Amino acid sequence: MVPSSKNVLITGGAKGLGAHLARHLCAEGHRILVLDRTAVEDLAPDYQQMLAQYMTVDLGDELAVRDCIAGMLASNEGRIDVLINNAGARSFQEFSAFDAYEIERCIQVNFKTPLLLTHALLPLMKQNGYGRIINIGSLSGFRGYGSGSLYCSTKAALAVFTQSVGSELAASGEGVTINAICPDSFRTREGEELPGFEETLKTTARTVDTLLRSRTNGEVIPVASRRRLFAEASVGLRKHTSWLFKRK
Ligand SMILES: NC(=O)c1ccc[n+]([C@@H]2O[C@H](COP(=O)([O-])OP(=O)(O)OC[C@H]3O[C@@H](n4cnc5c(N)ncnc54)[C@H](OP(=O)(O)O)[C@@H]3O)[C@@H](O)[C@H]2O)c1
What we know:
globular, binds NADP nicotinamide-adenine-dinucleotide phosphate, 7 helices, Rossmann fold
């Protein structure tokens, strides 16, 4: 039975895209559960009231995440219908400038924690006959660039993970899906809104709505202007053909 009001867990839901999705899905009648490191007192009062559950946790701390998800399941009768792995560590610098701790943290937040949460919730979603896992990737996961070694590679890994588990779930037909949404840059770390900010957030929310209804599995969906997508596609094509020519 597909519940009409779903328990939706959003990581990194205190601000940015996560908070936008939380407000949107709450207005659609869903119960919103959030994991974020932001102190609850720092949330706007109207937003605090909107949330069914808020837990403060560092998503880079595996043991703490395990504890939180167990607590969240216990207080929601074992039912989390939708998992949106949204939190991301946006760390950019030359690879050799990262220390070992920063490398581990970025891999943990952007890749290992989404896997851990997926692993914890999948069996229960299957048991309930309904589940939607949506991973927030990035257009940066489609192609590496200078200073993006950690960010691009962890987002690429998340996309390929999504495709792989999506193939398994499509074959099993148990009512559970996993897909990824990969937006283009919409905001700097300093909070400055980039061109297309509103449109990116709206398109992402619309894509989430579609994925909640759809049975599609393993899709990696870019959210970007047509111009940007065309540019990305032509770069990919040029690279591929130059590689073919080099082989001859
Ligand atoms: N912004 C962009 O241009 C862009 C483009 C493409 C894809 N994305 C992806 O979209 C997602 C959301 O991006 P955003 O810009 O909306 O995010 P954001 O505003 O930077 O972060 C959203 C929330 O996640 C929290 N968070 C980050 N790391 C955490 C951790 N280790 N433990 C607990 N909470 C943590 C943040 O807390 P703090 O404020 O304390 O960091 C913040 O409250 C990310 O996966 C990002 O990679 C972003």
